């Protein structure tokens, strides 16, 4: 089967950084389903895994952790899906990714594709939806009951990206006031179109901007990038006994003592944790993806697809990686179909 992979970890400008390959088509066993891949999306994790290092892979390593497709085959222990079902999911970072014609994935981390979306629109959603959902409702323990969140607010730092775009929508459904950071006119417009109540500029000090729009502090802060750069500002802006959640990796250790006087909580969100450790609650990702699909089909959530780059190929994936590494992407970049 066709796939896009790598054997060396190179700068994306190098044409050997991602290459077209042919690999053996896998077979489904256990609780795995084999999915015919129709569309994929690209995330920062792809660029981080592909980043230059000295390692060399004997067999091509396949990236890609956002897939929408059709079940081709189901393992003997499967009970959730059968051949012909349309699905979407983010996969496991411990296994080969989905940038291939067919892909094996444990059915417990797969959801039914929203019926109202095409495959490209659906492929934009899984990883970011899982990340945003787990961050808000699992890590930060925000109630999904909108009545419980009146007068509460959430600051999302880096709100125009894929995770931020979903987090805004989920937070608004939960009844929160949402403040999203954006620094360019096009990202401000995008954040507002997702439903944010206010926008501020993450290149300026956070607290004075929050105070200018009527917030002396915020009980929830979700930081999606540049955590180290924003840490002092986050520590100033978080409310006493508030919760800070982050997903990116700082270059140096954080000074958690800045949160001590406020008894504030700091938590990480890593959406691959359940699949990486095969936790007892792996199936929660199946359940939440189905809830995302229901919300989309009832027009309570919308896809964050921003651009389709064409068919799935090494050339187009290198272009997608370049876009993500520019740190100027809005929403999600998708590729669909092999040629």
Structure notes:
- The chain has 339 residues and is an alpha/beta fold.
- It folds into two domains: 2-125 and 273-336, Medium-chain alcohol dehydrogenases, catalytic domain (Quinone Oxidoreductase, Chain A, domain 1, Alpha-Beta Complex); 129-268, Rossmann fold.
- The protein is 29% helix and 28% strand.
- It contains ten helices and 16 strands.
- The protein has helices spanning 44-50, 119-123, 126-139, 162-173, 185-194, 206-212, 227-237, 273-277, 283-297, 314-325, and strands at 2-9, 19-22, 32-42, 53-62, 67-74, 86-89, 102-106, 110-112, 153-157, 177-181, 198-200, 218-223, 238-246, 265-268, 305-308, 332-336.
- The strands form three sheets. Strands 3, 5, 6, 7, 8, 15 and 16 form a seven-stranded mixed β-sheet that branches. A six-stranded parallel β-sheet has the order 11-10-9-12-13-14, with helices on both faces.
- Strand 10 (177-181), helix 5 (185-194) and strand 11 (198-200) form a beta-alpha-beta unit.
- Helix 3 packs across helix 4 (162-173) and helix 3 (126-139) packs across helix 9 (283-297).
- The protein is globular, with a radius of gyration of 20 Å.
- The termini are close together.
